[in-house]
Amino acid sequence: MGTAVVHYTAAAVTDRGRKRPSNEDAFGFSVENGVYVVCDGMGGAAAGEIASSLAVDEVLRALNGRAKPDNHAAPVPELAGQAIFAANQAIFSRSQRNQKLSGMGTTLVGLIVEESRTWVVNIGDSRCYRLRGRRLEQLTEDHSLVEEQVRMGRMTRTEAQRSPLKNVITRALGTQNRITPDIFEFEAQPNDLFLLCSDGLTRELSDALIESLLSVDLALEELCARLVNAAKKAGGHDNITCLLVRAAS
User: Fold this and answer.
1) pLDDT for position 2
2) If you compute the radius of gyration of the chain from its CA atoms, what whole number of angstroms results?
3) CA 106 – CA 36 distance, rounded (Å)
4) Looking at per-residue confidence, does 160 or 31 come out higher?
C-alpha cells in the first residue's frame, strides 16, 4: 500500500482576461477544512459577480464547520448536497427580490478532502482535473449542450469545439429553485495535483498544453501564473481562474 495522504497545499489566481470589462469568476478555499471552490458567474450588470461570490461564500460556510467536535457530521456527499442547496437558494432568492439580478447564476466546481479521500462537486462547465505522474485527467463532466451531444455520440469533439452553441450550459447554480450537482469520489495519492478552473482557461488551452504547463517542478503560485498567462496569450477572451491543490504524504 502507498503512503497515506495527510496534508494539502493550495494556491489560486484569478484574472479578468483581455476582453471582459470585469471579473465574474470567484474562488475560495480553506486548507484547514479541506474545502476548495471555483465559480464562474453569469448575468447582466454585476449579477454574475454577485452569484459567484454568493456561491463561494455559502459553500465554504456550510462545509467549513463539518469537522467540529460537536458536529455529528453526515457523510460528505450529503453535506456537499446540503451546501449546494443552500448556495442555490441564496442566489435564487436574491434574484427573485431584485429584478436587476433576475436570471443570474453561476457554475461551481469544488473539491472536498479528508486525508486520502476526495470528493469533487460540479455544476456547469467549470472543471476539475487531476495530474498524476505527469498525466492529466478530467474528473468532471461538463453540463453543456455540446458536451452532452458528444457523450451521446451525436457530435464529434471537433464539431463541439467549433459549435456556436459551445457556451450554452445545461445546469447552473441559482437559475432555478432546485439543482442537482454531480458528486464524484476519488482516492488521492501523494503528489497528486488537482486543478479547479473556469472555462476561461479550458477554452483557450488544450488538455495537452495544460498537462505540459503543470508537469514542471514549481511552486503552486507559479504554476497558476503559468496557466493564466498562457490563456491570456492565447486570446484571454474570458475571465480565467485556476486553483491548484497538491496532496502530500
Assistant:
1) 55
2) 17
3) 16
4) 31
